[in-house]
Amino acid sequence: MMTIAGRYMRILILVVIAVGTGLPGSAIAAPKAPKPEMIKIADDLYFWFHYRGTNSAIWVTDEGVMVMETQRHPREAEKLVQRIRKITDKPIRWAFNTQAHGDHYMGNGYFKKIGATVVTQKEVARIMRQYWDKEKKRRLGYFKKRKLDPDEVTLESVLPDKTFDKEMVITMGGKKAVLMYPGESQDPGCSLVYFPHRKALVTGGCASVRSFSNTMFTSSIDNWINVVKQVRDMDVETYLPGHGPVGTKKDMQLMVDHLTDLQNGVKAAIAKGLSKKEAGKLTFMDKYHDWRGAGRAGRNIEFAYHLLTTGKSWFLDREK
Question: How far is CA 124 from the centre of its chain?
């Protein structure tokens, strides 16, 4: 099991190797993706880090366990639980989805099966219902590639048992986990989990760390930026994102800069009269070429272009 310090050293070495090649900026290869691993954040807090997939956070107490993000399929959820069992045999009492993206919630059925109560913000539950067919459809390729049965993932199995509006507190082992909704960011309902006793924050999709977040869901990049600023300014030392490595306040500022550069670059392209496709070929986001998911830069630009020219989310406001 890797510690935070050990993991950071490994990533730093990979980055130095990549930069040290002497290749020109846009040609520098991104660091090789590290292998998935369970990272111990504190005695009661763990981080399942999956660079190419979706991360999960695990809170362990004498009274039980809470898991944040249940992975993309019940079989993946089962494997996550097997990893948790190497840490504790306490019952998993709670499972939380920070947002209504299938890679964060389609494993809910397995957690329900083993007795966990699934909770989300109420807008997350609404989006799960309203866009179920559309969301599952975009996951079918992944299921097929990994030979996962899509029929195991049903709307009934993933819907939460409980929802909240602005805040919900879960108390176990004399400590608190504060579930909070800071306002719309990557999408409606995207929420956080704060552990005051550890000054740690699970950010889900609200604020990734050195990772290109999919922009096809948001209805306001300005709102998203404001939420990340809120997250940056909280009394937090450790950020546990849905995508990317463990982060710091510096990483939250980088996320603000990233979204600001994206929006300003798209606005400039629109002002020049460029089409969506033409804008998507621009290189103004190449400064983030070594971030996770940098290959989706062009698509993110096009999704942002659609938003800024129509006022609508590409995913949530389209019928197909």
Answer: 14
